[in-house]
Amino acid sequence: MIRKALGHILSCKDASRLVSKREDAALSAWQRLLLGLHLSVCTACARFERQVHFLRSAMQRYRQ
Amino acid sequence: MPNAEFARELDPHRGYLLRVARLQLRDEALAEDVVQETLLAALSGSGFSGKSSLRTWLTGILKHKIVDAIRRKQREPTAASAFGDIESEMDVEDIDAMFTERGSWDAKPADWGDPEAALNQRQFLDIMEVCLEQLPPNTARVFMMREVMELETDKICKELAINANNLWVILYRARMALRQCLEQNWFARNGGPH
Prior knowledge:
The complex is a heterodimer. Chain A has four helices and no strands. Chain A is an all-alpha fold. Chain A has one domain. The model of chain A has no long low-confidence stretch (mean pLDDT about 90). Chains A and B meet through helix 2 and helix 4 of A and helix 4, helix 7 and helix 10 of B.
């Protein structure tokens, strides 16, 4: 239920876009709040977030 | 005077520098040139302090040479076609296609288990390079500038004459596409929990 309700406010598409943007810019307090709520209930987007962080470490390894 | 022993130490890094330059310039001759300039600068420069790894130090020199090369190239009348149409890479149509109409994942990201283990495997880095090569040219370039060259976002925007929103879209595409490519070509095949 909560998941569905949150999905109406912030879809997975929006959430994934914010996850990426957060790597390069500061999000607004409102965006941080919505994203935090979304990630706490959405397994798919939480995985996406971990994978984005992994990409960063993978690129660092690539450089070494 | 160039130091022959130091030159020999630089040589094993040539292939890596060339791959990084190619991914950003998509121009074989130009990539060869910037790597040549980088190695010459390394040999004649004020020297390697040993504080960072040799490769990190060389990457830092290469960064400046690539930025210079991009500037030179953008002044050429054929610049637009040389790097392809960056405008088309600001379009989000391909990203939209990864989601349903209501904005849910069309194919949910899979569980990658413990992906860090892959970082110690040469084959994984090779797959990652193939995935990078498959990105649209400007997307690969921007992602390399950001993640390998570690350029600040405002610097990248300035060099490529794009705004911050364009940059975020391009980096978002890069991450979405790389994630998908690695999942299909590595994590779905190698010991992923499927």
